[in-house]
Amino acid sequence: MAHAQQAHNPQQALTAEDAAALRAEIAALRAQVQSLQQRVDRADAERAAAIASAASPASASTAPSNVAQAGQAAPTPPAAAAKPAVETAWKGAPQIRQGDWSFKPKGRMQFDTVAVAAPDSIPDKGLGLATEVRRIRLGGEGSMPGNFGYKLEVELSDNKVDLVDSYISWQSGPFGIRLGNQNQFQSLDELIGDTSGSVMERAAFTDAFNFERRLGLAAEWQKGPWLVQGGLFTDDVNALSASNGDENNSYGVDGRLVFAPKLGDTQLHFGLSGHWRDLNSTGEAGVRYRQRPYSHVTDTRFLDTGTFKASSETHYGLEFAAVRGRWHVAAETHWLTAGRIGGADPTFFGGYAEVGYYLTPGDTRAYKGGIFDRSAPKNPVGQGGMGSWQLTLRYDYLDLNDRDIRGGTQNGYIAGLVWSPINYLRFNLNYAHLDYRDAVLYAGSRNDYGVNVVGFRAELDY
After folding, report:
1. Which spans of this chain does the record mark as coiled coil (predicted)?
2. DSSP bridge partners of 105
């Protein structure tokens, strides 16, 4: 009985051992509570970070894995990828790019004043002093996804609007394709842009042999010093859109090969081209080869084969050029044979040779892609310089005599001075002395005489 009374006595004191055990349990419980509080605080922080991340476009696609572990809801699904930023650069005009798309407007203005002095006994009112807007050109070019590109240009010249470079292109590494209206790789001088030439007018044979853009499919491969170009072409778009354009079934095959090694500081250029054209129905209307006196402002021609019927044209040319420092040289020869109907086939010949020198230190003639390119002045006006000054001397020969055809011959001696105060702007002053033999225009009783030409051109292109 005494033992039972002792067990139910609430006033009985704890032993020292029981008190120590109770304190240990309280300390362990306090530690567990602190650990739980830390975990709750950490989970709250992670949840707040997840909410902020889901609300941010830059990180909407990323959700911390420990949010799911903490039992939180998954973040909002990411939005669609943002479009690439629009980038704008300046290359004579604004060039706008967004991702694989780009666009650059293009334009060109050329204003000519030319005086042609021929013997007084030639009664031709097209000679003397005249001015003209040589070219006004507008268009644009750019790139598209899939390595595609485009170019579209129209030109006001000869009081009419013509379609010039207008094509769709595709480029992959060294290989490229163009479909549309374009040059057919006829010669170095023809392929050089008319605002990149060293003198005002191209070599006489390029105009006399009717070099022009035509509608067709062309391919190009360039690697290292080698460039191979070729294509299949119909006729120029103006002939194809004429009233009898649906009857125009002419076509041609053209090719060009260039080897352009660089030896030390000297850039070399060796080229050859071959061309064959079946005139088909257009040959019945006849072909004609003629040339102006180093001036487009006059329609007078001192050289002219007259019109004759032909079934085909075959021509080929050789090219050479070199650039070293301020010096450059260039030369070409070109032969054209017309497959005449009802007569022997005549072969006509043209060529030129030139040497040029920049009077301003640091300037050089640019070369790119198998042709001479635009040359920006080293020290332009407005930046402490005087722009670039280039002097060029050229000899230009054309022979339109062969078989029974007497179209005449020309020996041309040309001096040109080009001032480029800034890039894209040029002023071109030229003098030409042309010696004619067998000219179709007679000076009295003579058809051999000289003609002098002085020309000035102001041009802006971008």
Report:
1. 19-53
2. 140
Strand 101-117 relative to strand 310-324, pairing: unpaired
SS3 30: helix
d(CA 191, CA 434): 24
Q: Each residue of 157-206: pLDDT tens digit?
A: 877 888 999 999 999 999 999 999 999 999 999 999 999 999 999 999 99
CB-based burial, 170-199: b 16+ in 10 Å, e otherwise: eeeeeebbbebbbbbbbbbbbbbebbbbbb
Q: CB burial class (10 A; 0-12, 13-18, 19+) of residue 71?
A: exposed
Q: Report d(CA 291, CA 232) in Å as an integer.
A: 27
Q: What is the pLDDT of residues 205-225, one digit of tens each?
A: 999 999 999 999 999 999 999
The H-or-E segment that residue 20 falls in is helix 16-55
Rounded average pLDDT over 304-308 = 98
Residues of the chain with CATH 2.40.160.10: 93-461
- Parallel, antiparallel or unpaired: strands 303-304 and 266-278: unpaired
Phi-psi bin for 39: left (phi > 0), alpha (psi -120 to 50), beta? Answer: alpha
Amino acid in the structure at residue 104:
K
Residue at token pair 């129209």: 154
34: helix, strand or coil: helix
Q: What is the pLDDT of residue 71?
A: 47
User: Residue 242 pLDDT > 70, yes or no?
Assistant: yes
Q: Does domain 93-461 have CATH number 2.40.160.10?
A: yes
Lowest-confidence region among 35-49, 130-144, 256-270, 279-293: 35-49
Torsion of CA 283, 161, 163, 369, to 10 degrees: 100
CB 66 within 8 A of CB 46: yes
Contact 220, 228 (CB under 8 A): yes
**Is 113:456 a contact under the CB 8 Å cutoff?**
yes
